Structure formats: structure tokens, C-alpha cells
Amino acid sequence: MIDHRRLGRELELFVSDPLAGAGLPIWLPAGAAARHAVEEYVRDLERRAGYRHVYSPPLGKRELFELSGHLGYFADDMFPPMRLSADDEFVLRPALCPHHALVFRARGRSYRELPLRIAELGGMYRAERSGVLGGLSRVRAISLNDAHNFCALDQVGDEVREILRLIREAHAALGVRPAGFRLSLRGPGEKYVGDDAAWARAEDLLRAALDGVDFTEAPGEAAFYGPKIDIQIVDAAGRESTISTIQLDFDKPEKFDLSYTDADGSRRRPVLVHRSLVGSMERLFAYLIEVHAGAFPAWYAPVQLVLLPVDQGQVEPAVDLVRRAEAAGLRAEVDVAGSLGARIRGAARRRVPYVGVVGPREAAGGAVSLRLCDGRALAPMPVADALGLIGKVVAGRSAGLLSAD
Ligand SMILES: [Zn+2]
């Protein structure tokens, strides 16, 4: 069975070292390169959709999380507070919303600014029990693709539909195949904040936004502050988890006393939409490693092109080609150690999408012979054409290896 922990080790994507701590994996250069490409893509997608990115610290004063309700409703999932002095306690944040509420509150806001979309790929922490931790799928240090969209009430429907569109676009580019949409509602025996009328209104808004979408209802799966739309995935072992989420919150704007000035000069409370297009980088990659069996689409493959000189005489042209590929924005390497066959097998084991063989004839003619990781071999072509071919697939974030695929 495909297991992202085994592939993660074999492909040197990440390592879990007991000395660092369970649930605290370290991303190795190959994993970090793939993650970096995905992060850049998501940030760009958000920027083009009107999001504004911020940076905020992964820990904050205890009072911030008392105000947000996290210490009242969510303390069991949080690390215990760290005490510097009697009146100075800090907690590792379990969510980014409190900081983003402070971004909204940093100055007066006008209705003209809404929806105000504050995004961050930020760190947060969960005190998961060590028994449930494994690889990247359940971790204690989480890097979340997060945003908080502050809206007027009558903007919420359009905003949620637009978020659903962005989620579909991101899933298509990454190769995520959702297993289902879920409307997560309140259930008995759990702690929830806020009044019934606000919950009912939020549920109605989410149901309306799901018009035309196949979804199931899941009582008891709501956040403590509001109902949500969850998009589920199933991993190779058949376990279901949430990858994307859209949550409505009438409570935090109240708690943080957020307001904006409306067209008529009156002060109004915004509605807060918490959303994540692709979830945490950890859970996303646990899933992507398995769904692609380690062979990521070329645009986020850790190494996109490996150059193999046939013998010593072509090392220099191969190194030169790597430099040209890097200058064109590609991730490329040269491999000189061992027989050509062994090096071709090595590149296949590492799931490198393109292998460029440079023999005496190619070197003399300024050409390269490309082999694709699905086994296809292309006729020798000028170096510029090969780089153009790969560059086009990468820039188009295509799932195939040739732009015609
Ligand atoms: Zn949030």
C-alpha cells in the first residue's frame, strides 16, 4: 500500500526525528522545494483574488486567546501556557483568527474596504497526543493556508461561492480529488458559543451557497464558533479528513468589538469568514505524496530536470545546461556518478519528471535527448527547445509531461 511516510523517507522529502519530538517533522530540501512551489502558487492565486497577506507571530499573550474564546472552548487541544512572570503568560496559538481580528482592528474600517480578505500561511500548534501522530498527516506544529474575510452580511453568499471557486481551482492545479462536501453543524454534547439565531442564519447562508453542490450534513462537526463547509479527502489507508474549509463566525467580531462605517455613517459589525483553500501544508503533502505516488506534477517536483552526461566529455555541456535551466527558473541538477543505466534508474526512483541525456552527438550539436518519467523518449532537440518545452508545462501547471498531454 502507498504510504506517505515510506515515500517521504525514500524521496527524502521530510524526516521525523525522535530527538526533535513526535509530530514535529523536519522538511528536507526536496520536500521544502516542492512545498515552496505550492506555497508560491497559493499565494499568487490569493493575491489575484483580492487577498492581502500579513505575517503574525505563532504565539501571543494569554489574554488574546481568552478574549477569542480559545482558552475557554479549545484549551484541551492547546499546549499549556508559558509563564515569563506572574502577569506575563504566553500561549502557542491554535488558530490565526485572533491575530487577524487585530489586523482588522488596527485602524477604522469603511464599508468600501469590504470584503477585506486577510491571508497568511502561518504557524499554529495543537497538543495532539503522541499516539495519534504519524508522518505529516497528524502533527503538532501546523503551517496553515489561512484567511479571514471580513464581510458585510449581504456579501457573505457571494464571498462563500467565490471561495468555493478558488478551492476548485487550487484542487485542480495540485491534483486533489475531493471525496465529498460536508455541511458541518452543531451537535449535542459539545460546547458552542453564540446565540441560536446567529447559528441558524449562518447555517442558512452556507446551505444557500452550496446550491447545486452534492453535500452531506454532519451534526457535531461544527467549529465551536459557527457552522462550516468542509471538503473531505480520503487517504490511501481509507481515512477521511478535511482539506479545505469555509466557516462562518458571528462571534469573534462581537468578542473583538470589530466594526466598520457603513455608507450612511452608521457603525456595523462585519461577519467573519474563516477559510482555507488547501488546509495545512503538512496534511496537504501527506495527501499529495500518496495521490501522486511521489511523482508530483512537474511544476512542484523537487527536481524537474536531471542532466546525464554519457561520459566525461559531456560533463561541461551538461553543467552548462543546468545553469541555463536554473536561469530559466527550473530546478535542475547534473548527475555524473555511476553508469548511465544506473543514473537513469536513479532519476526514475526519485520521480524526476524529465531526464536529459547528453552524449557526444548531442554535445556537438548543442542538443539534448529528453526522457520523460512515464517512459517516453523524445528525439534529440536543441537545448533551447527542451527548456522551452519543460518551461511551458511548468508555467501552465499542467498535470501531463508534454503540453499536448
Ligand atoms: Zn480562523
Automatic annotation (TrEMBL):
Residues 29-297 form the Aminoacyl-transfer RNA synthetases class-II family profile domain. CDD domains: ThrRS_core. Keywords: Aminoacyl-tRNA synthetase, ATP-binding, Cytoplasm, Ligase, Metal-binding, Nucleotide-binding, Protein biosynthesis, Zinc. GO terms for molecular function: threonine-tRNA ligase activity. The keyword RNA-binding does not apply. Its EC number is 6.1.1.3. It catalyses: tRNA(Thr) + L-threonine + ATP = L-threonyl-tRNA(Thr) + AMP + diphosphate + H(+). Coiled coil: none annotated. It is an enzyme of class 6 (ligase). Signal peptide: none annotated. Belongs to the class-II aminoacyl-tRNA synthetase family. This is Threonine--tRNA ligase. The gene is thrS.
